[in-house]
Amino acid sequence: MNFTDLEPATFTKLLGVVSDVTLIINDKGFIEDVSTGQDTMASLGCQSWVGKLWTETVTVESKKKIHELLQVQPQAQTLTWRHVNHPTPAGGEAAIQYITVALKGQKMLAVGRNLERLAELQRRLVETQQSVERDYLRLRHIEARYRVLFETSPEAVLMVDAHNYRLLEANIGAQALFKDAGKRLVGRDFRECFETDSQGEVQSLLRTALATGRIELCSAFVAGSESALTVSATVFRQEGGAQFLVRLTSREAFASAKSDTQSAAVLSAAMEHFPDGWLLTDTAGAVKSVNEEGMALLGLTAPSQVMGQSLERWLLRGAVDWGVLNTSLKQNLPVRNFATEVRTLSGMTLPVEVSAVHLLEPEPLYVFFVRDMDRRLQASSEATQALPNPFAELSQLVGRRPMKDIVGETVDTIERMCIEAALELTHNNRASASEMLGLSRQSLYVKLRRFGILSDNEVDSPIA
Hints:
This protein is α+β, with helices and mostly antiparallel strands. It has helices spanning 8-18, 63-70, 116-152, 172-177, 196-212, 251-272, 292-298, 319-330, 373-379, 381-386, 403-425, 430-437, 441-450, and strands spanning 21-25, 31-36, 82-87, 93-102, 108-114, 156-161, 167-170, 216-221, 228-238, 241-250, 277-281, 287-290, 335-343, 349-359, 365-372.
């Protein structure tokens, strides 16, 4: 093909179409002229290459490739594309593919193609491949969990084709029910597994489930069995079409499960309307549930105002009370009638009694029952007035002993009662008891020795 008549302007346009960047290189390897065919190439600062060695415009690992491109001979019959990288002003790298052609006057023409779009496509291809592999791995994990659940279920579970009612899969429970340890169930007509009188009922069940998309139930007799089973079927769709998930349970087991569900619903409703406050927390004290009376005690209007918050925040003595409660519950010791005060949402304080237990199933949880003491004291005020005054007998000592002695003995008795009550509430944790009584630990130990609760030889350290 003869290009001798091709005008220089036309040749320049042709180069602009077939290349992204064109360089004129002299025999010393310096760039004399640069022409770019894309606006995107301007970000490389190609015009600043003029007057520089070509090797100075590329990264270190590409210098050897530039030397090879500069060695091209005029009589070379084949041209080899080489991939080189140029550093960008932004600190990155731009990939360009070059070939060189010898010109007259010992000069050389370098034609380059921008590989940015190709690199972007390759990057997307790699990301897509990685995403596919992650999805495939996730599906394998889901399938493994499904297979474990399917095989270990104590109920008889079967997969049935919705088109021809053929059995596709049967778990160990189904094989035991149909006395088929050899897995000959797969491929059989599902209806043939039942007595003749029950086959129509089972077929009607499957048709109804397919039409409604809901779980349908019926009672049927398995072939060779004298007791009826409860058959439940639900439909789902896969690539091969619709399939049935069929479960077979004895009527006694079905009734027991239904009874357990109803019992749980009744218990949940009872706790919701329990006359005392009821809170459920995790072992760290974060509130997970609260009933209506519990919200009323704390001055709340919605459960969301306390959900996720620490119960310690609502206790007036905060960490002291929570430490006593948590210590007992961690040791699986029930807490009974623990006297404390709670701080309501409005900032008021309310005297309460707290009882609590530690539940281990279905997960470790604490259950707190909170009773309003103001209401309890008001209800029993009349009965209290009818009781004899516990200090009435002190009036009998007036005139017999000096008032100073009477008051001193009374104070000692009250102090001893308070200390013994605090030690009982804290399970003999003297550090917590001293905080509860508002005493220093040293003062508490002095009083313990004074009242004979702590011997002189005992080590002065709290007992957890």
